[in-house]
Specification:
The chain is an all-alpha fold and 259 residues long. It has one domain. Helices cover 76% and strands 2% of the residues. It has a two-stranded antiparallel sheet with strand order 1-2. A hairpin with a 2-residue loop joins strand 1 and strand 2. The chain is elongated, with a radius of gyration of 28 Å. About 2% of the residues have low confidence.
């Protein structure tokens, strides 16, 4: 009498499960790595320290007619509303509102986009930490992270080239993508938002951001590939040692009691 073996009990199911889990984990690491890099780089620039430094560089006080202290106070209040709310953006200088209703509406939209992206960055970081905790000794995880970082570096080069060749068109395309409602065009002669953040401010900040992202992406790609190679070499050595030990054991067993 023959017993029919349940296919689910065969040794094929578990390897298939592991391959699927490894594939999904690799895709997650590939996607999460560039998101985390961009998010961390963005926080280096979207803060009062960098913004104040760059506003001084681009003479925002001269453009707006405010004193440097008033520029920094107004900008600090705007950034506080972006990060912490409430998103009223009703900052005043000498009792007069800095932003008009259209500018306040646009900054409210900026806040929504930024906070959603930062939430995505937080999820990406959590995913990467979980992947490292579960599969940190697997070479495939580090290869996937390296691939994600390399793709990000390539994308930054392409986008940077677009901004370098046609800044106005690229900047407009960026705003049309993230602010399709269209409330992002302002008169630099009369409206304070584009005076506080003039074109030179954005162009220099974008260049600095791109350079930092490239450096971070290159570092992550290089370190991840190095980690993957180390793990692959260690695993290969362990496998070779295990095979050699097995062969030696079989040889001892074959010549054992009868000698």
């Amino acid at each position: 009498m023959t017993t029919r073996r349940d296919p689910s009990s065969s040794g094929d199911a578990q390897p298939a499960y592991h391959r699927a889990a490894r594939g999904l984990g690799g895709l997650l690491a590939f996607a999460a790595t560039p998101i985390a890099i961009v998010g961390l780089a963005l926080l280096l620039f979207f803060n009062p320290l960098w913004v104040g430094f760059e506003q001084d560089r681009t003479d925002v006080a001269g453009i707006t007619g405010y004193t440097p202290a008033e520029v920094h106070a107004a900008t600090g209040a705007i950034l506080a509303d972006v990060y912490f709310g409430p998103p009223t953006f009703d900052v005043t200088v000498a009792g007069a509102p800095v932003l008009d209703p259209a500018e306040r509406s646009h900054m409210a939209d900026v806040r929504v986009v930024l906070l959603r992206f930062l939430a995505l960055v937080a999820l990406a970081l959590v995913a990467l930490v979980a992947l490292v905790a579960v599969a940190g000794r697997s070479a495939w995880l580090w290869r996937a992270a390296a691939a994600g970082a390399a793709v990000l570096a390539g994308a930054v080069v392409l986008v940077g080239a677009a901004f370098a060749i046609a800044f106005d068109q690229a900047f407009l395309a960026f705003h049309e993508l993230f602010f399709p409602q269209g409330n992002f065009e302002f008169n630099p002669l009369t409206e304070r938002l584009v005076q506080l953040f003039p074109e030179q401010f954005f162009s220099e900040t974008i260049i600095a951001l791109a350079l930092v992202v490239l450096v971070l992406a290159g570092a992550v790609a290089g370190l991840s590939l190095r980690r993957a190679r180390l793990l692959s070499t260690t695993r290969a050595a362990a496998t070779t040692g295990s095979v050699a030990a097995g062969v030696a054991g079989e040889a001892r067993s074959a010549g054992g009691p009868g000698r």
